[in-house]
Amino acid sequence: MKRVGWKTLLLPGALAALFGAAAGLLSGRWAEFHPAWTFLAGALLSGCVLLAVFLAGVCRPLVRLGEAVRRVLEGDLSARARVPGFPAGAQLRELTRDFNEVARRLEEDASREWDVLPVFFHELKAPLATIGGYAQLLEKNLHPEQNREFAQIIRSEVEEMAGLADSLLLLSRLDAGRPEQPPETVDIAEQVRRAFTAREPLWREKELTLALSLGDAKARGYGPLLAHVWGNLVDNAVKYSPAGGTIEASLGEREGRVRFVIRNGGAPILPADLPRVFEPFYRAGNGGGESGHGVGLALARRIVALHGGEITVESGETEGTAFTVTL
């Protein structure tokens, strides 16, 4: 059975009753002996016409809004409702605009999610192919030294895939607004020092010079997440610095705000790439063949935003590339 809404039952019936009453007044004997009734009936008919026009102007936008809501619930995230004009009230117009904005954000989030997934699976293809190839070689029982080398390559590729999966899991949790622990007072200076110490073999191998100016700085936040930010920025500085180059880093706190700047003297990021360096899976053109899955800076930006801060990047031929974090 077809469902009938309240407006389908009540509004036409009410208008019909009013029209009937007005017609009865005009056609009955009341019109002959009481001219006032004729005037009243005419006014009633005019009111009915105006009421019908007004109700149509209010109900049609409600029907359109309801239809758009139904389409979104059924999975059509492109559905929008036309914002009504007069005689619809301001509240109905505002409600329609709010609905359209929510639908737009849902559509953008869904689009971003499905844009990321194909790239994610594409990123897995190369290490999986490498693992498969070296596994086949191991099956041939080659020299023990070769077997150890192949096993190390396989382990490295597996660790790379695990790191990518962990990063994407953390990214999804941040997008959902679900930190895993309550905020605490974090010693930012200590975290930054640990980030450089943990990567000492890497920057010593490239004979890099560190020019560090790390003052005391503390912030309220999520310690493990913030440590990920400093680690990623130091990783990038080491990775993109030329052998024998210098990494500069400064940290300080002023007027309740923490400011961290790290700069490397590697090839500058191309101007066309600068606006996109924080996008997941995006690799700038200055990579020079360096490895990485392109999620670290996207994670860093999410984490900094979660703490009410900002991360920016500047790059040029003479000054190198600098990332600035403000919390």
Automatic annotation (TrEMBL):
Entry GO MF terms: phosphorelay sensor kinase activity
Q: Which UniProt keywords apply?
A: Kinase, Membrane, Phosphoprotein, Transferase, Transmembrane, Transmembrane helix, Two-component regulatory system
Reactions listed under catalytic activity: ATP + protein L-histidine = ADP + protein N-phospho-L-histidine
- Keyword GTP-binding present in the record's keywords: the answer is no
Residues in the signal sequence? none
**Segments passing through the bilayer:** 39-63
Q: Which InterPro entries match?
A: HAMP_dom (IPR003660), HATPase_C_sf (IPR036890), HATPase_dom (IPR003594), His_kinase_dom (IPR005467), HisK_dim/P_dom (IPR003661), HisK_dim/P_sf (IPR036097), Sig_transdc_His_kin-like_C (IPR004358), TCS_sensor_his_kinase (IPR050428)
Ranges where the HAMP domain occurs: 56-111
Q: What is its EC number?
A: 2.7.13.3
Cellular location(s): Membrane
- Indicate the principal place this protein occupies in or around the cell: membrane
The GO cellular component terms are:
plasma membrane
Class of enzymatic activity (EC top level): transferase
**Name the record gives this protein:** histidine kinase
Write down the species.
Answer: Anaerotruncus massiliensis
